[in-house]
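Course assignment 3, question 2. Fill in each field.
Student: A.L.
Task: Predict the tertiary structure for the chain below.
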Amino acid sequence: MKYTIEYFHSRVKSDIESWPDGILADFARILELLMDFGPSIRMPHSRALGDGLFEMRPKGREGIGRVFYCFIMGQRIVVLHSFIKKTQYTPEQEIKIARKRMKEVQNG
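Answer field:
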């Protein structure tokens, strides 16, 4: 059974759609894998951050993106937050935004 993709807010989707073509193409490819295989995809495409939060790792010639997501009941994936990386490390503030949104989704 395929997983379905939902976005926390339409802004999250429009932010991703505005990314450079190379990063966006890799995002679309990883999203297909995620829909087919769910939580069984791993590095280099996806990484678990703990407590049910995952990080998708798209990249292209133009740089590196990060997309935070979680799984909820009924084969559903919710894309919580995204950004384009400017440094080697993922800023803690970006992870905090994703964790806060995940709590909202889970508590409904």
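Instructor remarks: The two ends are 24 Å apart (CA to CA). The first helix runs from residue 10 to 17.
Grade: pending
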